[in-house]
Design brief:
- This protein has six helices and no strands.
- The chain is an all-alpha fold.
- The protein has a single domain, classed as DNA polymerase, domain 1, CATH 1.10.150.
- Helix 2 crosses helix 3.
- The longest helix has 27 residues.
Length: 98
């Protein structure tokens, strides 16, 4: 079994659908801390909020409670959620046209 140093390698080789939620989130986080890699930070976020849905409308300050997250990483996560929200809205709008 292949062991990747970062989930980005797994995504490149096997596709995004092969990644777990924490691996996808770790890609956005990019780097962790000396004591906690990005994958652990991602797992902690998902444990705290339960899922991506649970993360979706949290105030950004809630993310600052997690060691290893700063403004830059939180802004990347917030931007990814906004992109997802816009995609969903566009799909719903197109679906409702029919």
């Amino acid at each position: 079994m292949q062991k990747w140093r970062h989930p980005g390698g797994k995504l490149r080789e096997l596709g995004a659908e092969s990644l777990t939620d924490s691996e996808l989130l770790a890609i956005l986080i990019s780097t962790g801390t000396k004591k906690k890699p990005a994958e652990e930070v991602a797992k902690e976020i998902l444990d705290k909020f339960g899922s991506f849905k649970g993360m979706a409308n949290q105030p950004l300050e809630k993310f600052l409670e997690i060691k290893g997250l700063g403004d830059r990483k939180i802004i990347k996560i917030a931007a990814a959620f906004e992109i997802a929200r816009r995609i969903v809205n566009q799909v719903l709008k197109e679906y409702n046209k029919d």
